[in-house]
Amino acid sequence: MARKSHRSGSLSPTDFPSRRTSSLVLLVSLILLALSAFSSGHDYHEALHKSILFFEGQRSGKLPPDQRLRWRRDSALRDGASVGVDLTGGYYDAGDNLKFGFPMAFTTTLLSWSVIDFGRSMGSEVHNAVEAVKWATDYLLKATAVPDVVYVQVGDAYSDHNCWERPEDMDTLRTVSKVDRAHPGSDVVGETAAALAAASIVFRSRDPAYSRLLLDRAVMVFEFADRYRGAYSTSLRKADELLWGAAWLHKATRRREYREYIVRNEVILRAADTINEFGWDNKHAGINVLISKEVLMGKADDLRSFKFNADGFICSLLPGISHPQVQYSPGGLIFKAGGSNMQHVTALSFLLLAYSNYLSHANHDVPCGQVSASPALLRQLAKRQVDYILGDNPLKMSYMVGYGTHYPQRIHHRASSLPSVQAHPAHIGCKAGSRYYLSPNPNPNLLVGAVVGGPNVSDAFPDSRPFFKESEPTTYINAPLVGLLAYFSAHP
Which of 37, 341, 352, 366 has its Cβ near the most Cβ atoms within 10 Å? Predict the structure, then answer.
């Protein structure tokens, strides 16, 4: 998993270059970007179908009868037994056999947001998207069943990463980690509250009783996160997940107490920091975009600073403006330093699209120096990133497995790279899998819909398992992509 990068220094829309030359460079860049997008002819509904199917390949626990990726089998059926709780189910977040509560919760939040904002564009796939949310929330309900305790990890990273074996064969340690009053983790617990609250909206009309259960649990979990403050990950000096959790609880409940919490803690929890960071371990840009919807609807004048931050986020992503935290590859891909770049591409693009819709309904543009960024432009920027992922790039490669004719064959993923149980019923031990890891052969099992970490800043991609930063898929890459593909399948 990529770790959070706590970068400071917020910029406003008017802080960007306003000289005539800079504006001309920006305008030319934007025109070229818009023109390049017309060359694509992608089947976004097919890609949507596959992006959701990927989650079935990441399932842990007892698989249901309607499991569609049939090469997967039941796995990790005793998770939690060592501490006397049932922690079966949920998702393996990447190409290993660990279950991390933090990225799983973020995945749940973004899948839910995708359904909330773009479910009407999903057509026949909305049912599968909702099922993908429920597979996660069923697990998160188990992980939060004990008051003031949240189970946040199953598996031991050292023993797991020392092996290359199928989840169905796992004989590595299934150590359980938790946060509690004595060992708090407001970041991971705040994200869990956000996930439960967001999912409660998804099920509000589909399953009211389940929705109430999710929302009641979200309230309880958030109170624990706020009352016992502390960090599970590297730093809590920003505590963005507390604002994130409060924002989703306000959206789900409409209770004034959560809005007042946001206003009261905005400065304390530094909502204006790192405006263009958004991922499983940094929520700043997402907070600003989510809350800005209320402002644009004219319902939250006391939260106008969040819209100011959201506008700054948009301006920082525009091609042609030099920003230290955001680059574009020669082929036009958003690039941020660190591993698994596609997690940034899909998450930031999702925010571009969501914000463009909020702006459209309010008839607003974003001022960026002498340039005004329209909702249509933001949609075009997001679409350009999606098209790059699907094959409009210098290598003419789809970075989604199973989409198109040219896609990664040797992804860094244990279950995909090892023979299936059906093809090889005998147990494959910890070190016996190494020969498959090192093999130059394509993976025998197609993890349909998996989007890998992606190419480097020069658009080069090594289709090789050991290059895990480029070749490993994750649930938190796909979750925001589901919403993007849904929208573009209905608005090509």
Answer: 352
